[in-house]
Amino acid sequence: MMKKELTSPEDIRRLVDAFYAKVKADAVLAGIFNEKIRDRWPVHLEKMYRFWETVLLDEHTYTGSPFAPHARLPIGTEHFDRWLSLFHETLGEHFSGEKAEEAKWRAEKMAAMFLHKIHYFQNNPDKLLS
């Protein structure tokens, strides 16, 4: 399969669909994602298309707070490490170039921030908003 630059909403869809196909089948991540999302995968994928379009293509289609749905999940370092591994793997299989590298960098920064905040809330449950 030929790798290409990540430049369009169609590319974002391809990335997100390929990535979440791996997540749904992954021994570490599938249970958490499938338990939380259940039968709402189309809604989740649509939200992820909009998120990554906003982040990578400067197409402002996403609104919301990306961290909030993750705050109470029973996840830790091993989950974020696996998520990043699958994300990098998927990018490398389909895309190359500046935007693909930016996507990796942004995913790493987001994972580090989410993990830090999740650890904080796990250690300070009284701080978690309802």
Detailed description of the structure:
This protein has a single domain, classed as Globins (Globin-like, Orthogonal Bundle), CATH 1.10.490.10. The protein is globular. Helix 1 packs across helix 3 and helix 1 packs across helix 4. It has 130 residues and is an all-alpha fold. Helices cover 66% and strands 0% of the residues.
Query: What general outline do the C-alpha atoms trace?
Result: globular
Q: Write down the Rg.
A: 15 Å
Contiguous low-pLDDT stretches (5 residues minimum) are none
Q: In whole angstroms, how far apart are the ends?
A: 46 Å
Count of DSSP-assigned helices: 5
One letter per element, helices H and strands E, the order comes to: HHHHH
The CATH architecture category equals Orthogonal Bundle
According to CATH, what is the class? Mainly Alpha
What is the makeup of the main sheet?
Answer: none
Summed up:
With 130 residues, the chain is mainly α. The protein contains five helices and no strands. The protein has one domain (9-124): Globin-like (Orthogonal Bundle).
Write the layout of secondary structure elements.
Layout: H1 9-25, H2 30-37, H3 41-57, H4 77-94, H5 98-123
Helix pairs in contact: 1-3, 1-4, 4-5
